Amino acid sequence: MATPYAYFKREIVPLSDAKIGVMTHAFNYGTAVFEGVRGNWNEDESQIYVFRMKEHYDRLRRSCRIMRIDFPYENEELSSITTQLVEMSGYREDVYIRPLAYKSSELLGVRLHDLDDDFLIFVAPFGPYLDIEKGARCCTSSWRRVEDTGIPARAKITGIYANSALAKTEANLNGFDEAIMLDERGHVSEGSGENIFVVQGDHVITPPPSSNILVGITRDTVMTLVREELGLQVVERDIDRSELYTSDECFMTGTAAHVTPVVELDHRIIGDGRMGPVSGRLVSLYFDIITGRNAKYSHWCTPCFSKVKA
Ligand code: PMP
Predict the structure, then answer these.
(1) Distance in Å, CA 165 to ligand 1 centroid
(2) Given a cut of 60, is residue 310 above it in pLDDT?
(3) What domains appear along the chain, each with residue ranges and CATH number?
């Protein structure tokens, strides 16, 4: 039986004991930054591999700088806490790891300075997020992506997720799987929790960080695979909404969504309405890599179980 654990107030405790007070600053004002990291279950090896842990903690550190959150942890310590948590929790399935650094003072007053900071991590089981085989039916959101001049999207700030939640719920209640948000200039930005790519001939195109995206780790993984394994060109440039309708293929990337084809947008079929050849190759490469089955990319995978069960 799996029992979830958390890292909380510098200790590993049962998840049920990790509680914050109602006056906690981050809970009231959205002043926390976080990561979503996946641990991927490999049945053959009875092992969970954490994918690109270093890159996630590096991004968390950058988010902390923007939000003036003190984060006195080195990657080595973070890696050891994370793998220990996963091992102790004992899940034998895909898990989601949520590190979160937050303004922990229990007081009133909107600001970032003169507050205490704290850090926690929890682990939860987490299966598929979107249907990869079927692909996602999406809509262009009526909500625009927040601008860097409002809340910087390059930082994974809890408060910014009100923007994503508005877009996701609008999409779901209107019968779509996911929302694609435009930025204030009207260019394509990203999904509520995914980056976006289009395929046009031998070019794979994705919006640049200046389109107010979270600079995704799956995005970086896919850009590497497109160049190194598929031999196609990756272009970062502004994308118009109507380009999504007319591209050969479109797909989204994210820790939760993996690589998910977008097969329909705003009631227009993209490509032939199924997973295209480029998306298909990326999906299969990606799953091999994240489950530790591709030796070339094993440096991206951190095993959690020290004693592998036979
Ligand atoms: N954009 C947003 C808004 C997200 O929440 C996520 C998920 N973290 C992504 C993009 C994809 O980022 P990553 O590939 O690092 O998970």
Answers:
(1) 13
(2) no
(3) 5-125 (3.30.470.10), 136-290 (3.20.10.10)
